[in-house]
Each structure stands twice: as structure tokens, then as C-alpha cells.
Amino acid sequence: MSRTLLLVAFVLLLLTLSRTSMAQGSTSAGSDSSHLPPLVVQGQGMNAPAVTSDDQVSQQLLQNYRKQRQVELLRDAAKLHQLSGELQEYLDKNGSTILSIDMLKKAEAVEKLAHSVRTKMKEMR
After folding, report:
1. 77-104 per-position pLDDT tens digit
2. Which residues of 89-109 are buried (b: 16+ CB within 10 A; e: fewer)?
3. Burial class of residue 87 in the structure, from the number of CB atoms within 10 Å of its CB (0-12 exposed, 13-18 middle, 19+ buried)
4. Is the pTM of this model over 0.85?
5. For 5, what's the count of Cα atoms within 13 Å in the CB-facing half-sphere?
6. What is the Cα gyration radius of the chain?
7. Which of 3-12, 21-30, 36-45, 60-69 has maximum average pLDDT?
8. Which long-range contacts (CB under 8 A, 24 or more apart) does 15-18 make?
9. Rounded to 5 degrees, what are φ and ψ at 44?
């Protein structure tokens, strides 16, 4: 008899605890979504984007990376065009027999920049 009473008391205690934990969970984020990350729980109607899968997140990151690389490529290409134009003007004025140290440094910068652009273009594939 005492075992039965003890078992009934234990079951009632468990039921009471589970009800209070469910009530607390439903007030904060909903009882069915308590295992989801905060952004997914807030996703709809809370002005936060709903993240549904890792594939979508990785696709978005890849797209952002490619856009950033495109901007860097355009910037580097413009700089390469400017430096090579300066070298061409210098060679037209002074001939190709003697180069100043400044022009040698610009030639090295053109070489490094061209290598950087080529590497970035290979990564874009």
C-alpha cells in the first residue's frame, strides 16, 4: 500500500513538473520550437530572416564571398591599368634603355598585382 502511494505521489510530481516546464516554454518561444535556435524561432513575423538549412546558409556565404571577390578584382584591375599606363607614359618619354628606381618599383607592383588578379580569377571558377 505504501509503495502504491509513493508511486502515485511520484507520478503526480512528475506531471506537475512537466506542466510547469511546458507552460514556461510556451511563454518564451512555443512548446514545439523549444529545440530550435533563436533565429529560427523568431523567423516569421519578428523581422529576422528564417534560416532553414545549412545549405542555404553556405550558399549565401559563397555568394557574398564571390561578390566581394568581384569587387576586389575590379579594384585591382583598375589599379593595374593605372600603373601600366604610367609605365607606358614613362617609356614613351624616356625610352626603354634606362628605368628609374621608381619605375622599377612600379613594374614590380604591376607584376604582383597581375599575379593577384590571375589568382583571384582562378578562384572564381
Report:
1. 999 999 999 888 888 888 777 778 888 8
2. ebeeeeeeeebeeeeeebeee
3. middle
4. no
5. 2
6. 33
7. 60-69
8. none
9. -95, 130
Going by C-alpha positions, the residue among 69, 46, 80 that lies closest to residue 121 is 69
Q: How many residues does the chain have?
A: 125
Q: How far apart are CA 117 and CA 114, in angstroms?
A: 5
* Sequence-separated (6 or more) residues with CB below 8 Å from residue 100: 90
Supply angle C-alpha 39, 44, 50, rounded to 5. Answer: 45
The 8-class DSSP code of residue 125 comes to -
Q: CB-based contacts of 103: which residues, under 8 Å, 6+ apart? A: 87, 90
pLDDT value at position 22? 55
